[in-house]
Design a protein that fits this description.
By secondary structure, the chain is mainly α. The chain is 75% helix and 0% strand.
């Protein structure tokens, strides 16, 4: 139950609205699945590994986003 509830909390914490302002079902599913993944990672490996995995994802997505942003 703890992983399920924390997955919902993780999803609700992140932005769910797309560019048009409507809730994006794809974002809901993505953040819910990510919350479940990080929750299970926490249960099986511990807090540090879960935080490290989230930080790695954040850094990797920021690098990819800046490479695809194009020239300023």
């Amino acid at each position: 139950w703890a992983v399920a509830l924390s997955s919902i909390a993780f999803m609700l914490y992140h932005p769910l609205r797309g560019a048009q302002g409507a809730v994006s079902p794809g974002r809901v599913v993505f953040y819910l699945a990510a919350g479940a993944y990080f929750g299970m990672l926490f249960v099986t490996r511990g807090f540090g590994i879960a935080v490290g995995a989230h930080a790695f994802y954040d850094i990797a997505s920021a690098i990819i986003a800046t490479r695809h942003a194009g020239p300023e």
